[in-house]
UniProtKB/TrEMBL annotation:
Function: Transfers and isomerizes the ribose moiety from AdoMet to the 7-aminomethyl group of 7-deazaguanine (preQ1-tRNA) to give epoxyqueuosine (oQ-tRNA).
Pfam families the UniProt entry points to: Queuosine_synth
Entry EC no(s): 2.4.99.17
The family this protein is said to belong to: Belongs to the QueA family.
Protein name: S-adenosylmethionine:tRNA ribosyltransferase-isomerase
Family annotation (PANTHER family): S-ADENOSYLMETHIONINE:TRNA RIBOSYLTRANSFERASE-ISOMERASE
Organism: Heminiphilus faecis
Keyword match S-adenosyl-L-methionine: yes
UniProtKB keywords: Cytoplasm, Glycosyltransferase, Queuosine biosynthesis, S-adenosyl-L-methionine, Transferase
Transmembrane segments: none
Assembly and binders: Monomer.
Catalytic activity reported: 7-aminomethyl-7-carbaguanosine(34) in tRNA + S-adenosyl-L-methionine = epoxyqueuosine(34) in tRNA + adenine + L-methionine + 2 H(+)
Subcellular location: Cytoplasm
């Protein structure tokens, strides 16, 4: 497959800048792979397609407030700092991106907060844009994280052209998020409300969780036409024995396994064992999935509507079939579905 095969015309006004008022009231396009039929429903209708013993696999990663604004010493220049990951707890070292990158040098100090009480020093230039910061803070690690996160804002995707608002802290987060570490929300999971989760539980649908700490690589532009030459950024993930038992039992009993989002699908496929089963996994994955690809574990998936040329669109096309998915995307544009993390949903059966 070529990069150019994942181009489609997406009007700017179809990119959702705010979430649906009620999580499970978003629209849902249902694609039936066996017949090619497409249905237009509401997300809460997902319950009608699953029953007792089926398994939904969710990503329980938790997005942290990774976006900070500081001022450079002496010049006072405003610097955007995007926290990527904590490198060393004891020394308060963080891997970050800074913007504008050209203004920052090793040894520069940055001041954060109205009172400039949080200070960081640039100690390394790791990539052309990346930096390592050491935060200068007296106090426990817990107090430091609290102080740092109070200064931070929700890291909305770059295609949402507005500043983060207070409600984003809750809405750009799944209700079951528990393992902190992502800067990108697993957006398919955003559609699940507490009421819907309870209704699924009552119906006998079981919930399993894996963790994939989704990073900014999800938004990195692919710069090669030949997709076999693209290298995905690595993401930290964990598949527990509990999830493995849940999924493998469902498979053995002929039940459906539904992956909630591309991060879950990627996580499952990074932990596949023989005969369409899963195995435990703790580590990093840089698995890049695009058509054609043979999925052996998940029998259904939920996804949002992704941007042109994105790796997420490629994974959905691999699962649903390239021709059918690209046709569905044309239909979605025509029917004015909302795209992006705050947009509508797609169920592929």
């Amino acid at each position: 497959m070529k990069l150019s095969q994942f181009k489609f015309k997406l009007p700017e006004d179809l990119i959702a800048s705010h979430p649906c008022e009620v999580r499970d009231e978003a629209r849902m396009m249902v694609i039936h792979r066996d017949t090619g039929e497409i249905e237009h429903l509401r997300f809460k209708d997902i319950i009608n397609f699953f029953g007792d013993g089926d398994v939904f696999v969710f990503n329980d990663t938790k997005v942290f407030p990774a976006l900070l604004y500081g001022n450079k010493e002496k010049t006072g220049a405003r610097i955007e700092v995007f926290l990527l990951r904590e490198l060393n707890e004891e020394n308060k070292l963080w891997d970050v991106l800074v913007e504008p990158a050209r203004k920052i040098r090793i040894g520069n100090k940055l001041y954060f907060g109205d009172d400039e009480s949080m200070v960081a020093e640039v100690i390394d230039n790791t990539t052309s844009r990346g930096r390592t910061l050491r935060f200068l803070y007296d106090g426990s690690h817990e107090e430091f994280k609290d102080a740092l996160y109070k200064l931070g804002q929700t890291p909305l995707p770059p295609y949402i052209k507005r500043a983060p608002e207070p409600e984003d802290a809750e809405r750009y987060q799944c209700i079951f998020a528990s393992n902190e570490g992502a800067v990108v929300a697993p957006s398919a999971g955003l559609h699940f409300s507490r009421e819907l989760m309870k209704r699924l539980e009552i119906k006998g649908v079981e919930a399993g969780f894996l963790t994939v700490h989704s990073g900014l690589g999800n938004y990195r532009e692919i710069d090669v036409e030949d997709l076999t030459k693209h290298r995905m950024d690595s993401e930290e993930m964990e598949v527990t024995p509990q999830l493995v038992d849940l999924v493998n039992n469902a498979k053995d009993n002929g039940k459906q396994v539904c992956a909630i989002g591309t991060s879950v699908l990627r996580g499952i496929e990074s932990a596949v064992s023989m005969g369409g089963h899963m195995k435990t996994f703790t580590g990093w994955t840089n698995k890049f999935i695009f058509p054609p690809y043979d999925f052996t574990v998940a029998s259904a998936m939920v996804s949002g509507f992704h941007m042109p040329y994105s790796t997420m669109l490629m994974m959905v096309a691999a699962f649903g079939g390239y021709d059918l998915v690209m046709h569905a995307y044309e239909e979605a544009v025509k029917e004015k579905y909302r795209f992006g993390a705050y947009g509508d949903a797609m169920l592929i059966l």
